[in-house]
Specification:
By secondary structure, the chain is an alpha/beta fold. The chain folds into two domains: 232 residues, HAD superfamily/HAD-like (Rossmann fold, 3-Layer(aba) Sandwich); 174 residues, 3-Layer(aba) Sandwich (Rossmann fold). The longest helix has 17 residues. InterPro entries: HAD-like_sf, HAD-SF_hydro_IIIA, HAD_sf, P-loop_NTPase, PNK3P, Polynucleotide_phosphatase.
């Protein structure tokens, strides 16, 4: 990577602007294009505007939640200079009151930004802007989209891609969806991005006073070097930071899959039919555990997501047992009152009932939920049915009414299933990312 790109030298200026001047935001005034500027800032002109340099392209994703546009005609090259937008390239508009019917406008974060972006482009980098936008409704999105061409017009010699995540999905940082789209676009031109030669600059870095650590987390997920705007543009020293929220590295290692370990997970077929009741948050691997251990033993799978009501689940269990088959009730079964329906049925049918408690926190379960909905590798997602995101209130309501299962309820035994990630190295890499969005 060019040393001048990562550690830019001070820009000579005949007016000798001081550091204080450099810190002052400046309203953009594109050089030699006063007519175009007047169109956007005053709304009055008799001149015909020049053709815009920035064009919005087809939105990305199944739900079209990732806006995508390009300034000029950016080329795919192996090294990428990626930037957040608000608070990094331009001043953030958060907390600033918008005047009704006012034309779109923006301010550079620092006056040196346009010159620096031109230098980066001249050094052979592909410039990419990746931004989260909290835009509620189609009107807000359309109003925001009017501002971006202003930025492009102020950079008439700087081609760049822009990706904007507008929903809480796999595109929203720290989720790496916008990076995956960039990789696909470049791959279509036979270009593989060199991550070691690329970098990302963002202001949500987990420092004291930062509203989040989202940008730094995104860079870690993507596995490229990270800088704050102060470090990159102003050459200031790195500040201490702390990244809040759940990360898989916080989990204990080397836990046994099931405890106690003294008896087999599935008894011999000569033991006769039984009922197995799963208990635990959504997304803690209950269905995968069934497939691994009980499906091959011909246990009937009973699940309320499929059957819709508890009454139908209880009926399915009764039919399986009367047919001489064992079954697994793969629901959350959060409290004693819910579990009692199956315990009473097992007593009535004179068959044993065991409980498998899937141990894990709400944060772990929510992380797994995000992973399987948004961050599975393509090789896995193409083979498995699409898993939609389970709503967050399903996790909070489980936690609020959860009662730990006890053998005294009528179970022959209660066994604990610890979370252990099972998958390929690529699956583990994807799972082992920062995935929670804005603390949730």
């Amino acid at each position: 990577m060019s040393s001048s790109a990562l550690s830019p030298k001070a820009t000579p200026n005949p007016r000798k602007r001081t550091a204080e001047h450099l810190d002052a935001p400046e309203v953009t005034k594109p050089a030699k294009e006063p007519k175009l500027a007047s169109i956007f800032t005053k709304g009055k002109t008799t001149e015909s505007p020049k053709a815009p340099t920035f064009q919005w392209l087809e939105p990305l994703g199944r739900a079209k939640t990732c806006l995508h546009g390009a300034n000029l005609s950016p080329k795919a090259v192996y090294k990428v200079a990626a930037f957040d937008l608000d608070g990094c390239l331009i001043e953030s508009s958060i907390g600033k009151k918008k005047v009704k019917d006012a034309p779109p406008t923006f301010q550079w974060w620092r006056a040196i930004i346009p010159k620096k972006l031109k230098e980066i482009h001249d050094e052979g980098y592909a410039i990419v802007v990746v931004t989260n936008q909290a835009l509620r409704g189609a009107t807000a999105i359309q109003e925001w989209k009017k501002k971006v061409p202003l930025i492009g017009a102020a950079l008439p010699e700087v081609p760049f891609h822009l990706f904007a995540a507008t929903a809480r999905d796999g595109y929203r940082k720290p989720m790496p969806g916008m990076w995956y789209e960039l990789e696909r676009i470049f791959a279509a031109e036979d270009v593989v991005i060199d991550k070691s030669a690329s970098f990302f600059v963002g202001d949500a870095a987990g420092r004291q006073g930062d509203f989040a650590g989202t940008d730094r987390k995104w860079a870690q997920n993507v596995d490229i070097p990270f800088f704050t705007p102060e470090e990159y543009f102003l050459k200031l020293k790195a500040a201490p930071y702390t990244l809040q929220g759940f990360h898989p590295s916080s989990l204990p290692a080397d836990l046994p899959r099931v405890t106690p370990t003294s008896s087999p997970i599935v008894p011999s077929s000569s033991s006769g039919p039984e009922v197995v009741l799963f208990v635990g948050f959504p997304a803690l691997g209950k269905t995968s555990f069934y497939r691994t251990h009980f499906y091959t033993a011909n246990y009937v799978h009973v699940n309320q997501d499929t059957l819709r009501t508890r009454e139908k689940c209880v009926k399915a269990v009764e039919e399986a047992i009367k047919d001489g088959k064992s079954c697994v009730v793969d629901n959350t079964n959060r409290d004693a009152a819910t579990r009692k329906h199956y315990i009473d049925l097992a007593k009535k049918l004179d068959v044993p009932i065991r409980c498998f408690l899937f141990h894990g926190t709400l944060e772990l379960a929510w992380h797994n939920n995000l992973y399987r909905a948004f961050n599975l590798p393509d090789s896995v997602a193409s083979k498995a049915p699409k898993r939609d995101l389970v709503p967050y209130n399903a996790f909070t309501s489980f936690k609020a009414s959860y009662e730990e299962p006890k053998a005294a309820e009528g179970f022959r035994e209660v066994r604990r299933v610890n979370w252990v990630f099972e998958g390929t190295e690529e699956e583990r890499r994807r799972w082992n990312m920062w995935l929670q969005i804005d603390g949730k």
